[in-house]
Amino acid sequence: MVKTKENEKPEIEEVKAAAVKPAAHPIKVAKKEAEEAIAEETVNAEVVEIDDDADDSADATDASGKKKADKYYEAVGRRKTAIARVRLYTRGDKSFFVNGDNFDKYFVPAEFKNIIEAPLVKMNCTDRFRISVVVKGGGVNSQAEAIRHGITRALVLFNADFKKRLKKSGYLTRDPRMKERKKPGLKKARRAPQWAKR
C-alpha cells in the first residue's frame, strides 16, 4: 500500500491522541483500587442496631468492644491567677466534680456555689450536664469565678444561642482585674516608704 497524505492523517491523529493521554501512575491506580474495595466492604457490611439506652450510659461500648469516648464541650476559664479547665458531658449521671472531689465538698460556702452555678441557672441547664473541672492557682473566690467563666464558655460552644444572654449577664467577659506588681523602691505596687522629716 502506497502511503499518501490522506492515509497518513488518521495514523498521525492516533499517535497524537496516545501522546495526549498519559499513562496512569501505578500508585494512583493502587489507591483507587483500595478505595473501591473499601466502598464495597462498607456496602456489604451488616447494619448493627444500637440501643438508645446503651448510648446514654457513661460506659457505652462500640461494636469492637472498646469503650466509646464520651462527647463533651471543653473550655478554659480564668480569673486573677486561677485557671479552670471545664468539660460539660452530655451523657452519664449528672454529677459535678472539681479536682476529683465532689463539688459540694470542694466549695463548702454557699456563696461560691451560687457564683459557679449562675450561668447554668440563667440558661436553665442545672440538671443537663455531667461537669468535670480541673482548677489551679489563685484563691477560693478566684477559682470559683474561673470555673464560672469556663462553664459559660462551654455553654456557648454547646449552644451558640446562649451567647447573647450570657454576655449581657457579664459571665462571658474575662475579668482582667489583677494584683498590680511591686515596683522597685516602693514597699508594694504604690505604697512608698514612710517619709520622716527628721
Shape: extended
Annotation, overall tally of beta strands:
5
N- to C-terminal separation? 129 Å
Structural class: alpha+beta
Low-confidence stretches: 42-58
- Count of helical stretches: 7
Percentage of β-strand residues? 5-15%
Order of helices and strands: HHHEEEEHHEHH
Percentage of residues in helical conformation: 40-55%
Provide the spatial order of strands within the biggest beta sheet.
1-2-5-3-4
Largest β-sheet summary: 5 strands, mixed
How does this structure look, described?
- By secondary structure, the protein is α+β, with helices and mostly antiparallel strands.
- It has a domain at 72-169: Ribosomal Protein S5, domain 2 (2-Layer Sandwich).
- Helices cover 42% and strands 14% of the residues.
- It contains 7 helices and 5 strands.
- It has helices at residues 5-20, 26-44, 52-56, 103-106, 110-122, 140-158, 163-169, and strands at residues 72-79, 82-89, 96-98, 101-102, 130-136.
- The protein has a 5-stranded mixed beta sheet.
- Strand 1 (72-79) and strand 2 (82-89) form a beta hairpin.
- Helix 5 packs parallel to helix 6.
- The longest helix is centred in the first third of the chain and has 19 residues, at 26-44.
- It is extended.
- It starts with a helix and ends in a 29-residue tail after the last helix.
Question: Notable features of this structure?
Answer:
198 residues, Ribosomal Protein S5, domain 2, 7 helices
